[in-house]
Amino acid sequence: MVSTQVATASTKDVASSNDSALVSSQGKTSIADTVVSKIAGIATREVSGVYDVGGGASRVVGALRERIPGASVNHSQGVSVEVGEKQAAVDIDIVAEYGVSLADLATGIRRNVIAALERMTGLEVTEVNITVHDVHLDEGSDDETGEPKTARVQ
Known about the structure:
The chain is of the alpha+beta class. It has helices spanning about 1-20, 35-45, 55-65, 100-120; strands at about 25, 25-30, 50-55, 80-85, 85-95, 125-135. It has a domain at about 30-135: Alpha-Beta Plaits.
């Protein structure tokens, strides 16, 4: 009888460790990769110091898409994910603003992405890898027209 109780207790422990917010006795919730990548992309853009999300090619495609009338912004641009039943891993490509500490920026992105994904999806985020592809330098434009600033010294 003692061995039966031990077996039953270990079976319960295994069952409770397998349960998550997404898998329960009442059913299973599956979250598509595109949903996770969209949430991660939005959370990345919220962090101050991120100029753009995506590497060179994806930013070019995104810029072309934005010029098409009626087209929507691709929030998952520059984000790739691997999603399992309980966990997710995220890779993010960014362009940082000049002058921002890249280490602090990466820490802020990780914190924001992990918080958003775990809160919204219930998935455990195992890693957030960030690649900084470029640094954006404001080339002297002082308004939206893109015209250069007037010279300070004549």
